[in-house]
């Protein structure tokens, strides 16, 4: 059975607004976004960037940048970085806002806040005030970020209350996909934000979408219960994914993510969360693993409550899910869908986002654990959950023990005359 635990040390940060989206900006920096909406409640809207580290005992997070977005709540975001530049897109009501993110290496400093205004947004970037040089901080350097709002495009056109529900940048950084309450998925050239394709296959609002890392696949799911696999380069539908649901029930897909298949070059698996709806709400929910090339449901794991969040690690080894009612977080082995970690009640409310710390890059902070996943919720908390290295016996040791056991058995049998 998977280990179960909950420690107060799991809480990395407490913010002053509900959280809806989480993304790794670099291999050591995470960005979280959310807010209280346009109503005058005094709850801020925006996002914060934290630097992650490990102090030898636990993970810690230090705020690097805070960006406030005025009356527009940040419901979703997606980040892309290459060797030259970094971009961030954030869903703000009916629009998708593009940001240029510049990283600057500075000497360790005291923090002084300055406030600037741009396009009705407020940016608070911590500026430097040099400390007197001592032996302790003489060579200390930190990575800071300068966030500059760029273009903004309307991506949803549903009546009086349009809302961009999900945005995702392709792993190549050349395409942006957006989906909202009008049920239409739009593909944009990135970062120019010029229209590329309009995908019309859903009759209700889009719940989630994702690109595969190697093929030209795009998966979209919506509240109409339909999951569609697309060729994103051509803007053409490939197939609709269907499965045999329990008799008398109806299921809706909640979240979807592609993941690379370990040990198989340039092949992807597809993971989806399926929740019962209507009169069937007492039935099981599922984490499903699909083979997108064949459109086949390969295996699934059952849950006693509805699921709310999903993440796949960049190397494809682990999958994490977050629940709707208990606020729990679980980690599964992607290949077998075997649960290896369970954190019941990780949040006091439903989990709104999950993100694994990356392992495919250098200088990550995950070497202290086999896996680490970040979770957020409308309870304003950013938490981290770690899977300790599982104790395994080396193959050579196992062989030696087997040989020794057989030898001692032979000696004992000879001694008693058998």
> Within the largest sheet, what's the order of strands?
2-3-4-5-10-9
Distance between the termini: 42 Å
Overall geometry comes to globular
Q: Give the uncertain stretches in residue-range form.
A: 110-138
Number of strands: 30
State the helicity in percent bands.
under 10%
Query: What average pLDDT do the residues reach?
Result: 86
Beta-strand percent range: over 45%
Rg measurement, Å: 24 Å
Describe the biggest sheet? Answer: 6 strands, antiparallel
The structural class is: mainly beta
Q: What is the tally of helical segments?
A: 1
Describe the structure.
The protein is 5% helix and 53% strand. With 418 residues, it is mainly beta. The strands form 7 sheets. The protein has a 6-stranded antiparallel β-sheet, with no helix packed on it. The longest helix is centred in the last third of the chain and has 21 residues. The chain is globular. It starts with 10 loop residues before the first strand and ends with a helix.
Helices and strands in order:
Blueprint (H helix, E strand, L loop, with lengths): L10 E4 L4 E6 L4 E7 L9 E10 L4 E10 L5 E8 L4 E7 L2 E13 L1 E10 L2 E10 L10 E14 L9 E6 L5 E6 L4 E5 L4 E6 L6 E6 L5 E6 L4 E5 L4 E5 L10 E10 L7 E9 L8 E7 L4 E8 L3 E6 L5 E6 L5 E5 L4 E6 L7 E6 L14 E7 L3 E7 L7 H21 L3
Antiparallel strand pairs: 1-30, 2-3, 3-4, 4-5, 5-10, 6-7, 7-8, 8-11, 9-10, 12-13, 13-14, 14-15, 16-17, 17-18, 18-19, 20-21, 21-22, 22-23, 24-25, 25-26, 26-27, 28-29, 29-30
